[in-house]
């Protein structure tokens, strides 16, 4: 599943006439916090409770042990044959074969026997084998009726069939006994238990172990106008509204479409049939095996039986789409389905072609064939996520799969490419081998996110994604989030349905990817690849937990004669939250040696004090540290030093007074590096004199580390500002990108301070030489993507964005003249790569007519990418009447797709003139927003970060706290907890460092 990952977008400007001497302050783009999601809170309360529970639990467990031992002796004979099957079914705690200790609810066996529906997890007594699912879909009144026939095996004797259902109207239930005694079993009673979303069928007599039974259920439900389960959406074709219905089952919504064992461990085979009017077509995971048309114009499609799979990967759609297709060399038929006008204009061609190449790439890389005969890609107008990797029928929101070359920017193409690469990777990591339980969702999401970079490098080697872009977009981004005291371990306990949504956050995706990249680098590419192959081959069509992966990777290392216990290393990184800052300094008493220390990096040290229960224990990691020593012209080759203790001494190469130390070469590791001030000074001199001695990745890494170390109080505030003085000489995109990300973070803190112009002038001074040198893109591209020029184009764009955001007059005039030309000629000659910057600048600086013009273009544009850019530009206005109108129209009309409404509110909040408006609007409409998006927790969390991250005064902090106290947070409690920590850190930064920061700028010769 791809979460919506917006990169470097969303300009906004303070208002001011173009000739105003005060000149405008530009505002933050790439906003790391806004795109991040929920972090599980670790409050004192919770941990004290946990602690008490542990003590109590220990006492009870001793007592229980005595009782259970006695009972077990009595019962051992009858339970014996069931134990193996049961334990292999249960989830997690790192291994697919260990009994599950994280099973939700009360682990009281008696209760499980008498009222198994009261548990958050399904009882383990039954195991589904096969489903026959028949659905009739009525698009005229948006309802469907269904009949499911589930064949299941009894593992432990039980009278109860407990199945997930949600919002389904169950009509009739029949249970058939096993084939030894065929017949209908009498039902004692049946009922919904809504709090656990289950339907319970209690039988008169018990089902027996190792026998199979069948349950047949008929039901009805609505095709809701929302984003989950089996839902509908619409689009306009030739002035006429058309409807389609599609599914989104991950993580817990298959139960909204049919009664099922809706947990990933319950893999089964499925045979699906869909009946609908013949004017529609239908698709599902498998190809149509047989199709029957009735006299009344209804058609029934019978799809082939699926392989064993989890319920949340099932999918179907009923729509009027058309398609284009391609065939891979190994015979897999790929079809891209979309609105007929998108298909005929060729908007789907790009995604179709890269998908074909990617299937072959993954087959070669994993040495495992794609498992199904076909793969359909479906472009839908409305979807809660960027995309969903349903096996054989992956669903994408249109903006992440349709591309119009003549109007799409490079960054749009890049995002789209990465979403496709991500979803195709899931066909192996996810669909074929599925995590046992949601606590290890990073096992699929971390891999898919990591492979976004590897797979894109395969498609476009010159983009250098894995070596470069990964650093800013993944590593730097997630270290911001994981440096909060309210972060959580990547493998987190999951009990209830609301917990499940929480695990889909950037920690799972980005930290997962960063850890996998670090591990792949330590193992070496080919050994890593062999380990993955073994893992996939062993667990295909089944489930796996993290320990299964560690075992396979350790075995691959052992075969190479390298004895590293990967589980021992990786448990430190996956079971502890956060990451270390490693401090490297020259050892004064030992020649050519360094002292290395590690400590847990947290932005706000006070947060540690507020939660002593959690932070009293020492956080230590097994760190694969690479260190190089260098001087003005040369850098030593580096080797891996394993650092496991708090302080260690290690020998490195020759050193003297003028040699500097550099740690974490090419930023392969997931940690920050700090040095003494003398070493920082030497590194800065090196950057000023000859930055090429230090690799591009390390230059970007130094910038990110230095800004964040200063933000957290590890370094004086002037050190990062001094470091970026070398930027005018920097010709590479990545260090610029790292700098601008760090500067926009600072901008958020500073943009309402009195001395703000000291900061913006300082930034402009570093940017201006490069801006004037690179200029603006002049010719509009001919529609073909020039991959060789990518770095140059991206650099140019980055510098223009900085210049326009921080108020460079030339940049503003250029944007205004491009907009004026468009309005007067009615011909858009603005190069796609800078359209977002130009539109936003124009809307912010020019009068209301420009806003109306962009609003009109938003309505008339049919190109998906262009529509989105136009919509975002509307949030840049300084006119609160227009902003208010935009907010209201977005939420109450269907002019703006549901998933984009959130971005509109965040965009208004990012605009200094809309900040209070968005914050107030968010609070006023919270009930509506929470009702609409609350279940798609990722979206509501993104919204919460988006409207709160700019708050940085004591008064705003209390507004936030008051709001949280008086409103129901629902599933978003964790997002609010994190928002509070962020705003507290902002307030604290002002208290402690603002003066120091401006003092240096006032005195700086470069300021
Ligand atoms: Zn995914």
Automatic annotation (TrEMBL):
Q: What cofactor is this protein dependent on?
A: Zn(2+)
Instruction: State the membrane topology.
Output: Single-pass type II membrane protein
* Cofactor binding annotation: Binds 1 zinc ion per subunit.
Q: Which residues form a coiled coil?
A: none
Every copy of the Peptidase M1 membrane alanine aminopeptidase domain together lies at 350-573
Where is each ERAP1-like C-terminal domain found? Answer: 660-983
Chain ranges passing through the membrane:
54-79
Q: In what ranges is there compositional bias, type Polar residues? A: 93-106
Task: Read off the Gene3D superfamilies from this record.
Answer: 1.25.50.20, 2.60.40.1910, Neutral Protease Domain 2, tricorn interacting facor f3 domain
In terms of superkingdom, the source organism counts as Eukaryota
| Region Disordered: start-end pairs | 88-121
The molecular function terms of the Gene Ontology recorded here are: metalloaminopeptidase activity; peptide binding; pyroglutamyl-peptidase activity; zinc ion binding
E.C. number = 3.4.19.6
Residues at the catalytic site:
423 (proton acceptor)
Arranged from A to Z, the UniProt key words for this protein are:
Aminopeptidase, Disulfide bond, Glycoprotein, Hydrolase, Membrane, Metal-binding, Metalloprotease, Protease, Signal-anchor, Transmembrane, Transmembrane helix, Zinc
What region holds the Aminopeptidase N-like N-terminal domain?
128-313
Pfam (any one): Peptidase_M1
Q: Name one GO biological process term.
A: peptide catabolic process
* Record InterPro entries: Aminopeptidase_N-like_N (IPR045357), Aminopeptidase_N-like_N_sf (IPR042097), ERAP1-like_C_dom (IPR024571), M1_APN-typ (IPR034016), Peptidase_M1 (IPR001930), Peptidase_M1_aminopeptidases (IPR050344), Peptidase_M1_dom (IPR014782), Peptidase_M4/M1_CTD_sf (IPR027268)
**Residues engaged in binding Zn(2+):** 422, 426, 445
The entry's function note states: Specific inactivation of TRH after its release.
- Subunit comment: Homodimer; disulfide-linked.
The Swiss-Prot or TrEMBL record describes its family as follows:
Belongs to the peptidase M1 family.
- What is the protein name for this chain? Thyrotropin-releasing hormone-degrading ectoenzyme
Organism, as annotated: Clupea harengus (Atlantic herring)
């Amino acid at each position: 599943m791809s979460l919506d990952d917006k990169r470097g977008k969303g300009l906004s400007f303070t208002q001011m006439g173009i000739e105003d001497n005060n000149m405008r302050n530009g505002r933050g783009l790439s906003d790391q916090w806004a795109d991040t999601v929920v972090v599980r809170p670790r409050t004192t309360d919770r941990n004290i409770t946990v602690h008490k529970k542990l003590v109590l639990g220990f006492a009870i467990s001793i007592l229980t042990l005595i009782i259970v031992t006695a009972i077990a002796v009595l019962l051992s004979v009858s339970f014996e044959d069931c134990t193996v099957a049961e334990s292999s079914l249960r989830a997690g705690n790192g291994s697919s074969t260990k009994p599950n200790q994280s099973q939700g609810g009360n682990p009281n066996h008696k209760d499980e026997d008498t009222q198994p529906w009261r548990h958050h997890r399904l009882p383990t007594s039954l195991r589904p084998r096969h489903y026959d699912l028949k659905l009739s879909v009525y698009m005229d009144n948006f309802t469907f009726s269904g009949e499911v026939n589930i064949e299941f095996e009894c593992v432990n004797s039980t009278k109860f069939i407990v199945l997930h259902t949600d919002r389904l109207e169950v009509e009739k239930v029949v249970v058939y006994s096993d084939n030894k005694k065929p017949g209908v079993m009498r039902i004692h009673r049946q009922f919904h238990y809504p709090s656990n979303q289950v339907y319970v069928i209690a039988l008169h007599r018990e089902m027996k172990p190792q026998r199979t039974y069948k349950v047949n259920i008929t039901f009805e439900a609505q095709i809701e106008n929302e984003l989950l389960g089996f839902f509908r959406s619409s689009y306009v074709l030739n002035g006429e509204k058309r409807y389609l219905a599609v599914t989104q089952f991950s993580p817990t919504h298959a139960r909204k479409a049919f009664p099922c064992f809706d947990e990933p461990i319950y893999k089964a085979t499925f045979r699906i049939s869909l009946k609908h009017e013949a004017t529609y077509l239908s698709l599902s995971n498998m190809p149509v095996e047989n199709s029957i048309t009735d006299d009344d114009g209804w058609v029934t499609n019978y799809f082939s039986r699926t392989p064993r799979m989890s319920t949340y990967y099932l999918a179907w759609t009923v729509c009027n789409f058309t398609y284009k297709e391609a065939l891979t060399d190994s015979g897999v038929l790929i079809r891209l389905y979309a609105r007929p006008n998108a298909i005929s204009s060729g908007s789907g061609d790009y995604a179709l072609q890269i998908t074909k190449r990617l299937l072959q790439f993954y087959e070669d890389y994993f040495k495992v064939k794609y498992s199904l005969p076909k793969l359909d890609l479906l472009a839908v107008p409305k979807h809660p996520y960027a995309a969903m990797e349903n096996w054989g029928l992956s669903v994408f929101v249109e903006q992440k799969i349709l591309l119009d070359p003549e109007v799409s920017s490079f960054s749009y193409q890049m995002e789209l490419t990465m979403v496709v690469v991500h979803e195709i990777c899931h066909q192996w990591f996810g669909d074929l081998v599925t995590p046992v339980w949601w606590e290890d969702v990073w096992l699929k999401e971390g891999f898919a996110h990591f492979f976004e970079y590897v797979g894109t490098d395969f498609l476009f080697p010159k983009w250098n994604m894995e070596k470069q872009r990964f650093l800013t977009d993944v590593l730097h981004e997630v270290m911001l989030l994981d440096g909060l005291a309210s972060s959580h371990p990547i493998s987190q306990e999951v009990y209830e349905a609301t917990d499940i949504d929480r695990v889909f956050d950037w920690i799972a995706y980005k930290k997962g990817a960063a850890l996998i990249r670090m591990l792949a680098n330590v193992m070496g590419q080919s050994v890593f690849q062999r380990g993955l192959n073994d893992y996939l081959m062993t667990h295909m069509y089944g489930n796996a937990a993290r320990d299964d992966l560690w075992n396979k990777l350790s075995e691959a290392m052992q075969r190479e004669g390298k004895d590293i216990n990967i589980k021992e290393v990786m448990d430190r990184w996956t079971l502890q939250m956060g990451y270390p800052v490693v401090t490297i300094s020259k050892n004064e008493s030992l020649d050519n040696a360094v002292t290395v220390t590690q400590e847990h990096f947290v932005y706000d040290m006070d947060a540690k004090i507020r939660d002593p229960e959690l932070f009293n224990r020492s956080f230590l990691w097994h760190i694969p540290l690479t260190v190089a020593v260098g001087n003005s012209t040369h850098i030593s080759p580096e080797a891996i030093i394993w650092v496991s203790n708090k302080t260690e001494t290690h020998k490195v190469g020759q050193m003297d007074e003028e040699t500097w130390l550099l740690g974490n070469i090419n930023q392969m590791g997931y940690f920050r590096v700090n040095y003494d001030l003398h070493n920082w000074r030497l590194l800065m001199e090196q950057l000023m004199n000859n930055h090429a001695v230090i690799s591009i990745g390390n230059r970007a890494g130094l910038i990110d580390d230095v800004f964040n170390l200063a933000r957290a109080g590890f370094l004086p505030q002037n050190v990062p500002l001094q470091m970026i003085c070398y930027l005018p000489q920097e010709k590479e995109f990545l260090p610029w990108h790292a700098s601008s990300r760090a500067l926009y973070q600072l901008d958020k803190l500073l943009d309402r301070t009195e001395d703000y112009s000291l900061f913006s002038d300082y930034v402009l001074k570093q940017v201006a030489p490069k801006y004037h040198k690179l200029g603006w893109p002049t010719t509009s591209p001919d529609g073909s993507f020039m991959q060789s020029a990518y770095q140059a184009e991206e650099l140019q764009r980055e510098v223009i964005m900085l210049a326009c955001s921080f108020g460079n007059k030339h940049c503003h005039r250029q944007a205004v003249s491009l907009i004026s030309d468009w309005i007067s000629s009615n011909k858009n000659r603005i190069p796609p790569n800078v359209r977002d910057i130009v539109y936003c600048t124009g809307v912010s600086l020019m009068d209301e007519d420009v806003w109306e013009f962009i609003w009109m273009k938003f309505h008339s544009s049919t190109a998906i990418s262009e529509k989105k850019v136009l919509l975002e530009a509307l949030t840049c206005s300084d006119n609160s009447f227009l902003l208010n109108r935009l907010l209201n129209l977005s939420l109450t009309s269907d002019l703006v797709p549901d998933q984009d409404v959130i971005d509109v509110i965040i965009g208004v909040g990012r605009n200094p003139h809309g900040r209070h408006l968005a914050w107030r609007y968010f609070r006023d409409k919270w009930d509506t927003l929470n009702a609409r998006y609350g279940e798609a927790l990722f979206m509501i969390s993104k919204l919460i970060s988006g409207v709160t991250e700019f708050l940085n005064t004591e008064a705003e902090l209390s507004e936030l706290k008051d709001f949280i106290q008086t409103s129901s947070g629902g599933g978003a409690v964790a997002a609010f907890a994190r928002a509070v920590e962020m705003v507290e850190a902002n307030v604290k930064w002002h208290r402690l460092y603002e003066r120091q920061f401006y003092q240096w700028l006032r005195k700086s010769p470069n300021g």
